[in-house]
Write a structure and sequence with these properties.
465 residues, mainly alpha
Length: 465
């Protein structure tokens, strides 16, 4: 039975916001802000399933004329939402063919000396692919998530009582490691080229691939070393003895024998989609197009059948609540809230030394991501205003560009909806929502400690300021 406070908080918070001065916004825009606050509170307190909350939100918003029903359903046409769905279906293919199991056994056999070593191995695999894979959802959600899931299952770690055996740690290491990797290269995540374009439009400097990679290298390496270990301490695996699992992996690989026909089919499609993800920029093929092509091929060659698609409940659950959240965040941006927020912050730090003004703006920029369900949406809504304000206050353009650029990736650490891989990894069910938010907030503090002091010192060495 749902306790009353789970309903009270999502009702009281928007009521309190409605009573505040509207700051020049009309009643419709302010009502949209209240609805957004109610939805976020409901996703936190969980008075009902996330999908049910989102359907109620869309219906309420349309009924109150805060947006049209067409706008309310627009999130389900978002390409990232469909990429997330396709990633779940790819994971299904790796499970039903047992190819993911085979890959996982191979990883455990070769690098499974300890849970921490496995975590670093997953992050290293992400790092190798990152310069060539511009979608972190495709990379972490489509490629590494199903493999990591199967590695956890080798240890008998499933959602529920056995999640803490090793699965929770591995999935959190995958997610938080991917955010660091995404911040290290211009081509490692979708918002990064957008950041470079905004920098070109708003200043006289250019943020090239090399400049980004060199500027992010030292703080990025520190973060790659520190973040998986921090996650290890925050979500310690119970099963520290991996010897039995390595023995089991060797035995199961011997039992499985050579690749089956379905495994070969899955492997061929998997490699084709990976190639399209890597070459997508040159071929003008979006990651979502490549992913849906892969799912179609899996269906046509009978690796998956339609029942597999229908029965993938986690995929459809995430599709419903994340699509609605993407719509809400977009409506909030159209109402102009991020721009007004940036202007108010600029007024508050006017007259400060540029470096302290920039630090405060970076902190606010990072934690503003609690209100966003997309890295691209965050960059589109807030980067131009924050970047222009930082330059106006005297910050060197390249320092501001790199600093806001890297934080445009790691800011997704806090929530289970902050970027494409988040609902995929969270949807596996190994980490509870309170644990995800608690660990995410601590990791966000670690990012500030790493990227700001170390970053600013390194950028000084490079002559960026």
């Amino acid at each position: 039975m749902t306790t009353p406070w789970r309903w009270i908080i999502p009702l009281l918070v928007p009521a309190a916001i409605w009573m505040l001065p509207h700051g020049g916004f009309d009643a419709r825009s302010w009502g949209l802000l209240c609805l957004f606050a109610a939805t976020i509170c409901a996703l936190i307190t969980r008075p009902a399933a996330a999908g049910a909350v989102m359907i109620a939100t869309i219906a309420t918003g349309a009924l109150l004329r805060l947006f049209s029903i067409q706008d309310g359903l627009s999130g389900y046409g978002n390409v990232t939402v469909w990429l997330i769905l396709a990633a779940f279906l790819f994971a299904r293919g790796l499970v039903v063919t047992r190819l993911g199991e085979r890959i996982a056994y191979g990883i455990v056999k070769r690098v499974g000396g300890s849970p921490l070593r496995l975590g670093y191995a997953i992050v290293l695999a992400d790092l190798v692919m990152a310069p060539m894979t511009a979608s972190n959802t495709a990379r972490a959600g489509g490629i590494l998530f199903p493999v990591t899931l199967n590695v956890a299952r080798v240890f008998g770690s499933e959602p529920g009582p056995t999640a803490s055996r090793i699965g929770a740690f591995l999935l959190l290491a995958l997610y938080h490691g991917d955010l660091v990797v995404s911040a290290m290269f211009l081509t490692a995540c979708a918002p990064n080229p957008l950041v470079a374009d905004f920098v070109r439009q708003g200043s006289s400097v250019r943020l090239s691939w090399t400049t980004w990679a060199v500027a992010a290298s030292v703080p990025g390496v520190v973060a790659l070393a520190a973040i998986p270990y921090l996650v290890y301490r925050l979500s310690p695996p119970v099963d520290l003895d991996t010897a039995a699992a390595r023995t089991l992996a060797s035995e199961r690989l011997a039992e499985m024998g050579p690749l089956s026909g379905r495994e070969r089919g899955m492997l061929i499609v998997f490699c084709l989609v990976l190639a399209l993800w890597i070459a997508g920029d040159w071929l003008a093929i979006s990651p979502t197009t490549a992913a849906l092509l892969g799912v179609a091929m899996l269906l046509l060659v009978r690796v998956l059948d339609w029942r597999d698609i229908v029965e993938e409940k986690s995929a459809w659950d995430v599709f419903v609540w994340f699509g609605g959240l993407m719509m809400l965040a977009g409506q909030l941006e159209k109402a102009g809230f991020p721009k007004v927020f940036a202007q108010a912050l600029a007024t508050a730090v006017h007259g400060w030394p540029w470096i302290w003004a920039l630090v405060l703006m970076l902190v606010v920029y990072l934690y503003a991501h609690y209100a966003f369900a997309s890295l691209v949406a965050h960059v589109t809504a807030m980067f131009p205003a924050f970047f222009a304000t930082a330059i106006a206050l005297g910050a060197p353009p390249l320092v501001a560009a790199v600093a806001f650029g890297v934080l445009s990736n790691v800011n997704a650490a806090m929530t289970h909806y902050g970027t494409g891989p988040a609902p995929i990894v969270f949807g596996a069910g190994y980490v509870s929502q309170p644990a995800w938010w608690r660990i995410g907030f601590i990791v966000s503090l670690a990012h500030l400690v790493i990227w700001l002091p170390i970053g600013f010192l390194w950028w000084k060495v490079l002559g960026l300021w």
